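To fix ideas, we reproduce below a protein record of this kind.
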Amino acid sequence: MEETPNCPKCGMENTYFDGSLNVCPDCFHEWATGEENTSASDDTPRDSNGAELQTGDSVTVIKDLNVRGSSLVIKRGTKVKNIRLTDNPEEVDCKINGSGIVLRTEFLKKG
């Protein structure tokens, strides 16, 4: 019996082959055999819809967000201008009401 590879997205070992694709039940990532290294190298920052983000873009917050360590709440629909990319493709740096904040890209929509 052939051993299934670890998930290229989350690294978990709990993967299985469903007949056509390898599947990771932990992060729901699916990939074909031989694609293990190509998926893991995609470090392009993307918004919640999959649009590529770049430094200087304007984004909209898609969910009310509580800021840790503060009573500040970033409301859904808040427009954020001039974002800056960070070393982590899942986070962007920005200023909201004069405060420097790091936001996760999964809560942003480009435009």
Summary: The two ends are 49 Å apart (CA to CA). The mean pLDDT is 86. The longest helix spans residues 36-40. The chain has two domains: 1-42, 59-110.
